[in-house]
């Protein structure tokens, strides 16, 4: 194909990889009539016009702006008979124009634009129905644009006033089109415009009219004379639309009601009923309309039709306005549920919601809408709880309150039964054959049902519990795997209300949890297995066992009030720990009992010791993670001897290893040790000591404090704990120091220890330390010696030059530093009166000072070995650098005196490393360094330099402060990313606040340098920054000053970042 000798195919090929010849020919083709007349070309032309009006309005003089009005109206008339996408774009341009000039230069835009378009259409002989297309489109676009544009405050009131004058006309047009085909008065009335009559027979334009009404509602309609009739009209029209869909009335084929039209009308009503503002102003009037007109047989028929056709989406659509109504007007419903004038309608409304809740089928498999009404029952319960009649007569108020409660209770009884049905699992074959997505939807819905059951319990209380217990006992006595689902639903309901049932309940739960029931029903079921291991039967049995364990877990506090049942219920739980599919549920139930009944478990100690023994035995089916959870929960003194027994066995096993055994061959020896040490860690976390007991007592009855603390004191001094502490230290010392772990490498003895084992040992030290030094009374000297020995092995490993060992040093070093930080926090904290053997504060500081000297020296030297220069090494080892400065910061905040005992060379290395790390534009390196320097700067206050500690920090500041300051200002000036500005600002603020004199002097010298910190700022700007920085006392203001200076240094004024 060619135009004027131009081959279009060759032109397209030339434009695919643009050539000069093709680009020169393109404008000629674009200006051809054939191109200008295409739909795409006209569409993009209208789009360009719209954008130019919106973005370049101020570039037009007023005369051209006024002339544009007539031109836009002419374009609308021209394109209203063409493709609708082009008309829509032209209409958008007109609306955007109108919003620039109304109301000052175009009053009553909406009214005048309709009249003007009809006049111009009449003059040009265009059928008015085409103008109707433009009118409806403009009436829909105008509120959309109003919501997207911000107006000056002095213009909003005048704009709203101008729009409000046209709203009766707007809603008159739109509502007449929306209901035109079904309302004979509109179709036959002489004053109905022809275009309204014709559009009212077109379902597409009726749908557009509903959508336009919705847009105006979203914009905001405040006049009662518009809003209330609109609600009334919409409800009546939905009744008519439902009759059309149900076949009660018929329309010509071209005017038939469509699903899109129904959906648009429903969404419009839903928006009106969701309006909180209108509910507060006209709640009673709107409620009367909804209850008297919407909850009618026609709605029931529409929903029933959807159910019969398995159309979940349509059923939910019809109920959506009612759900929104209930969410906003629930207080009205409760207040009037006994009012004879509307009670019948309220009952119908609640019945519809109930039918939605018990929608037939299994959620996720057969239906997906029954969960949409669950929120209604929560709101109903909340409204009932807050309901207080105010008739002025106390006796009448009391009677009305009781009557209201009874009415709501009767509803919740039906809700309760419906929820039990909906919580029931589908048939086993359906479940097992279902896909993952279906099961996920069902389980998510079931959780929501559980929350609604808990809400229901607040209304029904004992009545609901009595029903559940009776049904549970009946189902347990007649249980069969062929029909396990009803029992599963009852157990789920009982579990769901567990947290709400008071632990003092002694009427119904004692029947369910009677010793006979636990031993003859619960325990046999939990211990049972299948002779014929079919997939279907197996799933049913597992589900029931899981339900029983979840039920036991949910009533942890109730077991605490009934300790006589613990010796029976604990075996029910522990019997499931050897079943792989139930171990997680069993552990959760076991932990719930232990956490709630720690003080009452003496009666079940035999079962717990037996459980722990089974866990410790080789070949147990309990996974290691669950074993740890069990030991943390069962942390009571009778178990200590079991742990000691296993630790002695581990030590003996280690001693049997021949010297020189290779590292690979050592794995069978350290793997069981690791497992048992993890259990020790869990036991250390779970043991409850005096400080915990005292805290618990203070939360309850203060009179129990002395008794509990005294009991805890005796508990901590028990022989079992002393033996446990001794054995633990022996084992840890053996693991760290023993020759068993020495192997030869390049003629150097290296203490080679698995990473996970070392991590576990350090975790134990941290767990014990967090409880305070009195927890296990670990001797301070032995703990520090132990850490020192392990550190020596780590340093030797790093010094070998081996890449493998260097990598292990990188991984293990941060763990060591974290443990030392934790020990400093514990052993330099407040003196605990229960540990008189603790060394004095001065001696503790000296020991930790020596440890810090050695550890920090070794680490900094180790960092330097990893690269040719320290900066590169720090950049490559951010985790080690972070651990170093986290340790230093923690030490400064916990015990600043320690730094007096760190050797001067080590202090110098720390300060030099900090200056180098601060210069690295990397968050991982800079952030911990900046925190450390900020903490140190706060301690170096020049006005408080008395005492050796203050003098030390002030000396460090005088020696290194200018270097730190120069690096910080350089980073602010552009050497560091903008994301690090907050850290640098905080550091600079600490410098200015704590050492203002020296900081000002140094800043003056630094800023006087040519081109520092940036060539983009002149001397005047630098002096202004200096003056503002040193005189500002508010950190927020200081940060703003730094940010502004940084923007200037980076030459970012006027950019998005600067704003």
TrEMBL record:
Entry's localization field: Nucleus
Record-stated family: Belongs to the importin beta family.
Entry coiled-coil feature ranges: none
GO cellular component, one term: nucleus
Keywords: Nucleus, Protein transport, Repeat, Transport
Amino-acid biosynthesis among keywords: no
UniProt source species: Linderina pennispora
InterPro entries noted in UniProt: ARM-like, ARM-type_fold, Exportin-1/Importin-b-like, Importin-beta_N, Importin_beta-like_NTR, Importin_rep_3, TPR_TNPO3_IPO13_3rd
Importin N-terminal domain boundaries: 42-78
One Pfam family hit: Xpo1
Record protein name field: Importin N-terminal domain-containing protein
Keyword tRNA processing: no
Any one biological process term the GO annotation gives: protein import into nucleus
GO MF term list: small GTPase binding
